[in-house]
Amino acid sequence: MDAIDKKILRTLAKHGRLSNAELAEKVGLSASPCWTRVKRLEQAGVIQGYAALLNQAALGLPDTVFLEVMMERHDEEQLRRFEAAVKDIPEILECHLVTGEYDYVIKAAVGGTMGYERLLRDKLYRLPGVRHTRSSFALRCLKREISPTPE
User: Fold this and answer.
1) CATH code given to domain 3-43
2) Where are the domains of the chain?
3) Cα(146)–Cα(134) distance, integer angstroms
4) Residue 12 in contact with residue 47, Cβ under 8 Å?
5) How far apart are the C-alpha atoms of 136 and 64, rounded to whole Å?
6) Cα 132 to Cα 144: distance, rounded to the nearest angstrom
7) Which residues on neighbouring strands pair with residue 106, listed in sequence order?
8) Which residues are bridge partners to 97 per DSSP?
9) In the sheet where 104-110 sits, what is the strand order?
10) What pLDDT, on the 0 to 100 scale, is given for residue 31?
11) Helix axes 3-14 and 31-43, enclosed angle (nearest 10)
12) Count of CB atoms within 10 A of residue 83's CB?
Protein backbone atom coordinates (compact mmCIF):
# COMPACT_ATOMS: atom_id res chain seq x y z
CA MET A 1 0.00 0.00 0.00
CA ASP A 2 1.55 3.27 -1.09
CA ALA A 3 0.82 6.91 -0.23
CA ILE A 4 -1.88 7.20 -2.92
CA ASP A 5 -3.71 4.12 -1.62
CA LYS A 6 -3.61 5.63 1.88
CA LYS A 7 -4.95 8.94 0.55
CA ILE A 8 -7.79 7.05 -1.19
CA LEU A 9 -8.63 5.27 2.09
CA ARG A 10 -8.58 8.49 4.14
CA THR A 11 -10.80 10.22 1.59
CA LEU A 12 -13.30 7.37 1.36
CA ALA A 13 -13.44 7.07 5.16
CA LYS A 14 -14.62 10.67 5.34
CA HIS A 15 -16.61 10.86 2.11
CA GLY A 16 -17.82 7.37 1.17
CA ARG A 17 -20.35 8.57 -1.38
CA LEU A 18 -17.90 10.29 -3.69
CA SER A 19 -18.11 9.26 -7.30
CA ASN A 20 -14.97 7.73 -8.76
CA ALA A 21 -14.34 10.95 -10.73
CA GLU A 22 -14.60 13.06 -7.55
CA LEU A 23 -12.35 10.67 -5.63
CA ALA A 24 -9.79 10.67 -8.43
CA GLU A 25 -9.71 14.46 -8.41
CA LYS A 26 -9.23 14.61 -4.62
CA VAL A 27 -6.34 12.14 -4.66
CA GLY A 28 -4.68 13.49 -7.79
CA LEU A 29 -5.29 10.62 -10.22
CA SER A 30 -7.24 10.18 -13.40
CA ALA A 31 -10.45 8.17 -13.11
CA SER A 32 -9.23 4.85 -14.54
CA PRO A 33 -6.19 4.32 -12.27
CA CYS A 34 -8.23 5.48 -9.27
CA TRP A 35 -10.97 2.95 -10.04
CA THR A 36 -8.32 0.21 -10.44
CA ARG A 37 -6.79 1.05 -7.07
CA VAL A 38 -10.17 1.11 -5.29
CA LYS A 39 -11.11 -2.26 -6.80
CA ARG A 40 -7.75 -3.71 -5.75
CA LEU A 41 -8.26 -2.42 -2.18
CA GLU A 42 -11.76 -3.94 -2.12
CA GLN A 43 -10.54 -7.31 -3.44
CA ALA A 44 -7.71 -7.37 -0.89
CA GLY A 45 -10.25 -6.84 1.88
CA VAL A 46 -8.80 -3.50 2.94
CA ILE A 47 -12.11 -1.88 2.01
CA GLN A 48 -14.74 -4.19 3.50
CA GLY A 49 -17.82 -2.31 2.39
CA TYR A 50 -19.71 0.97 2.34
CA ALA A 51 -22.50 2.02 4.69
CA ALA A 52 -24.79 4.91 5.58
CA LEU A 53 -24.29 6.45 9.02
CA LEU A 54 -27.67 6.76 10.68
CA ASN A 55 -28.57 9.34 13.30
CA GLN A 56 -29.44 7.45 16.51
CA ALA A 57 -31.51 10.32 17.91
CA ALA A 58 -33.56 10.63 14.71
CA LEU A 59 -34.32 6.92 15.03
CA GLY A 60 -35.61 7.36 18.60
CA LEU A 61 -32.47 5.87 20.18
CA PRO A 62 -30.57 8.97 21.37
CA ASP A 63 -28.58 7.35 24.17
CA THR A 64 -25.52 5.12 24.01
CA VAL A 65 -24.88 2.62 26.78
CA PHE A 66 -21.88 0.37 27.30
CA LEU A 67 -22.64 -2.93 29.00
CA GLU A 68 -20.13 -5.35 30.44
CA VAL A 69 -21.42 -8.90 30.50
CA MET A 70 -20.15 -11.72 32.70
CA MET A 71 -21.07 -15.24 31.66
CA GLU A 72 -21.99 -18.13 33.98
CA ARG A 73 -19.66 -20.55 32.20
CA HIS A 74 -17.15 -20.39 29.42
CA ASP A 75 -17.90 -23.52 27.48
CA GLU A 76 -17.91 -23.20 23.70
CA GLU A 77 -21.59 -24.03 23.25
CA GLN A 78 -22.79 -21.37 25.69
CA LEU A 79 -20.52 -18.72 24.20
CA ARG A 80 -21.61 -19.65 20.66
CA ARG A 81 -25.31 -19.40 21.62
CA PHE A 82 -24.77 -16.04 23.35
CA GLU A 83 -22.84 -14.60 20.41
CA ALA A 84 -25.46 -15.78 17.91
CA ALA A 85 -28.28 -14.25 19.98
CA VAL A 86 -26.51 -10.89 20.32
CA LYS A 87 -26.35 -10.58 16.53
CA ASP A 88 -30.17 -10.57 16.39
CA ILE A 89 -30.68 -7.62 18.79
CA PRO A 90 -30.98 -4.45 16.69
CA GLU A 91 -30.10 -2.04 19.53
CA ILE A 92 -26.68 -3.66 19.89
CA LEU A 93 -24.21 -1.76 17.74
CA GLU A 94 -21.06 -3.61 18.77
CA CYS A 95 -20.15 -6.60 20.90
CA HIS A 96 -16.58 -7.50 21.79
CA LEU A 97 -15.16 -10.55 23.57
CA VAL A 98 -12.65 -9.00 25.98
CA THR A 99 -10.09 -9.80 28.62
CA GLY A 100 -10.55 -8.86 32.27
CA GLU A 101 -13.28 -9.32 34.84
CA TYR A 102 -16.12 -9.30 32.30
CA ASP A 103 -16.36 -11.47 29.21
CA TYR A 104 -18.05 -9.11 26.72
CA VAL A 105 -18.40 -5.38 26.21
CA ILE A 106 -21.51 -4.28 24.33
CA LYS A 107 -22.27 -0.89 22.83
CA ALA A 108 -26.00 -0.31 22.42
CA ALA A 109 -28.30 2.49 21.28
CA VAL A 110 -31.31 2.99 23.54
CA GLY A 111 -34.22 5.36 24.01
CA GLY A 112 -33.52 6.68 27.50
CA THR A 113 -33.78 4.73 30.71
CA MET A 114 -37.00 3.05 29.61
CA GLY A 115 -35.35 1.77 26.43
CA TYR A 116 -32.37 0.65 28.48
CA GLU A 117 -34.60 -1.25 30.91
CA ARG A 118 -36.40 -2.97 27.99
CA LEU A 119 -33.05 -3.95 26.47
CA LEU A 120 -31.92 -5.44 29.78
CA ARG A 121 -35.14 -7.16 30.87
CA ASP A 122 -36.58 -8.27 27.56
CA LYS A 123 -33.40 -9.11 25.70
CA LEU A 124 -30.03 -9.26 27.48
CA TYR A 125 -31.16 -11.01 30.66
CA ARG A 126 -32.86 -13.64 28.50
CA LEU A 127 -29.70 -14.49 26.59
CA PRO A 128 -28.15 -17.86 27.34
CA GLY A 129 -25.56 -17.88 30.13
CA VAL A 130 -25.67 -14.24 31.26
CA ARG A 131 -24.66 -14.10 34.92
CA HIS A 132 -24.10 -10.41 35.61
CA THR A 133 -23.99 -7.08 33.80
CA ARG A 134 -22.59 -3.65 34.56
CA SER A 135 -23.56 -0.58 32.55
CA SER A 136 -22.38 2.97 31.84
CA PHE A 137 -24.22 5.61 29.84
CA ALA A 138 -22.20 7.77 27.47
CA LEU A 139 -22.64 11.44 28.32
CA ARG A 140 -21.11 12.78 25.11
CA CYS A 141 -19.22 11.34 22.17
CA LEU A 142 -15.86 13.06 21.79
CA LYS A 143 -14.63 11.15 18.75
CA ARG A 144 -16.32 8.75 16.39
CA GLU A 145 -14.45 6.91 13.67
CA ILE A 146 -15.89 3.93 11.85
CA SER A 147 -12.48 2.49 11.08
CA PRO A 148 -8.87 3.51 11.46
CA THR A 149 -7.34 5.45 8.60
CA PRO A 150 -3.73 5.10 7.52
CA GLU A 151 -1.33 7.96 8.12
Assistant:
1) 1.10.10.10
2) 3-43, 57-137
3) 25
4) yes
5) 9
6) 28
7) 67, 95
8) 104
9) 92-97, 104-110, 63-71, 130-137
10) 96
11) 80
12) 14
Does this chain's domain 3-43 share its CATH topology with 57-137?
no
Question: What backbone torsions phi and psi does residue 136 show, to the nearest 5 degrees?
Answer: -140, 130
Burial class (CB in 10 A: 0-12, 13-18, 19+), 103: buried
Domain over 57-137 is classified CATH 3.30.559.10: no
Among 126, 114, 60, 50, smallest CA distance to 88 is for: 126
C-alpha span between 23 and 123 (Å, rounded): 43
Round to whole Å and give the CA distance between 24 and 8.
Answer: 8
Going residue by residue through the chain (151 aa), what tens digit of pLDDT does each one get? 999 999 999 999 999 999 999 999 999 999 999 999 999 999 999 999 998 889 999 999 999 999 999 999 999 999 999 999 999 999 999 999 999 999 999 999 999 999 999 999 999 999 989 999 999 999 999 998 888 888 8
Gyration radius of the chain over CA positions: 20
